[in-house]
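Dear all,

This email documents one entry for the complex benchmark we are building for the journal club exercise. For each entry we list the sequence lines for every component of the assembly. Then comes the predicted three-dimensional structure of the complex as a token string, followed by one or two observations. Please use this as the template for your own entries, and keep the labels exactly as they appear.
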Amino acid sequence: MRRVALRSVALFYLAAILVGPLVVVFWRTFQHGVAPAWDALSAHDTIHAFELTLLITGIAEPVNTVFGILCALTVVRRDFPGKGLLNAFVDLPLALSPVVVGLALFLLYGRTGWFGPWLTSHGIRFLFALPSMVVATIFVSLPFVAREVVPTLREIGDEQEQAARTLGAGSWQTFWRITLPSIRLAVIYGVILTTARSLGEYGAVAVVSGRIQGVTETATLRVQEQYENFDLAGAYAISLVLALGAVLVLLTTTLLKPKEEVV
Amino acid sequence: MTEPQAVAALKLTIGASVVVALLNAVLGTITAWVLVRDDFRGKAVVNAIIDLPFALPTIVAGLTLLALYGTRSPVGIDVAYTRAAVVLALLFVTLPFVVRTVQPVLEELDAEMEAAAASLGASDFVIFRRIVLPNILPGILSGVALALAKAVGEFGSLVIVTGNLPFRTEVASVYVFGRIESGDSGGAAAIAVVLLVLSFALLLAIGAVRHYATRFDRA
């Protein structure tokens, strides 16, 4: 009895909060057939928004992959003062409000900010343009690769690396032949999470982009814009595409992840 | 910062986040228990969709919630632009945290201990309170702290859902955004610093809980 009661509570909770809303969006999107949804998606500004999102993700992804691996290697394999602090700082983007991230960039690079005047005098447009959006996205998706790689690095230990060294391998060779193959899965997993976060970033990008339609509007900003202009069909259609992306991410991570570890 | 609108936004943010964190502690623990100790068809699917709020863009989360619980709700529940909507949106985005911190601990917890307690005549409630709860408490606490941190800073899912009515549904991050948009980055920075300090404090709390939970492993 107790078992069934608890199961019902849990399943009802998940249905009401997670599954229900998504089903309704799916239904609403195709309420009047496929054509309106398709029209909404093929609007010029919408296509541009998706292209911009993909471009930003395409830049943020490799940067964070390299940084994440370097960061994990530093945290696990090196010992230096302030290591605990670095460890905590890597997690900060996870706990920080995206709006605060955006504001920080705004204050640093704005007209009266630290780097703002220098950039303006060199003719570089940072805020309300691609660079700030890329930096904001990199910031919010920073921790994922590092967080996945750190536990794996700890687990494999450094005996094989030391063995490689004693056999005359350089540090570069050791990394490519020993370390990277053993952390491969963790890296892939981290990259997928980075991608999901970058594709879906809203708050930080909303602050720094200026939300200029057809210019600095990403897919998520486009959703809000369409919604505010009462173009529900458009908002739902873009949302559905983004949601399908999220489901794809879930599927891949579920298939990749070994059964025993869950978090 | 002492501006009434800012104070109201901060109060709402902290109040709603605490409510959501407590709800998560209960519902998240139940969900984790069901996923570990129960067995039913489609459990693997249920387990996979728990992470959906992590993968789904927050703005999409807001829009989907409004599709079911908004003005044109097919089930007749309309919470759009109310404080209930704030809680609902925060519940959505924080759903995975407690489940995912409690689940691995429950998996490692030996069911034999519970069986032994039951054979000695302990009731379900006593078993939970004396055996299960002490073991999963660090997991619940760190999950709750993570959920709090996420809830306090949440922005995307709240923009559409709450309508951002000052003094009623405007949360801190939305207030900060509004200040930036109207060119008052000083006013924005003041509240942002409060959010920043809260995030830091919660990160430290999570670290402390982890430190405590692993005290035997480290020895």
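Observations: Chain B has eleven helices and no strands. The domain at 4-218 of chain B is CATH 1.10.3720.10 (MetI-like fold).
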